[in-house]
Amino acid sequence: MSTASVARSARLGPLISIASVAAFVLLWYEAARLGWASSLILPAPGEVLDTALQMLNDGYRHVPLWQHVAISLGRALAAFAAALVVGIPLGLAMGLSPILSSILDPFVQFLRPLPKLALIPLVIVWLGIGESSKIFLIFVSTLFSVIVGAAAAAGSVKVGRLRLARAFGATRRQQLWYFVLPSALPEIFTSVRLAFGVGWTTLIAAEMVAADSGMGWMVINASSYMRTDIVMLGILLLGVTGYLLDLAVVGLQRAVVPWAGRE
Amino acid sequence: MSVKIAFEEVTQVYGDTGKGGGTRALEHFSLEIAERNFVCLLGPSGCGKSTVLNLAAGFEKPSGGSVLIDGKTVTGPGRDRGMVFQEPLLLPWRNVIENVMLGPCLAGWPKVEALAQARHYLRLTGLERFERHASYELSGGMRQRVALARAWIGEPPVLLMDEPFGALDAQTRLVMQELLLEIWEQTRTTVLFVTHDVDEALFLGDRVVVMSASPGRVLLDLAVDLPRPRTEEILTSPRFADAKRRCLRLIGEESRRAFGHLEGDGI
Question: Coil, helix or strand for A52?
Answer without folding.
Answer: helix
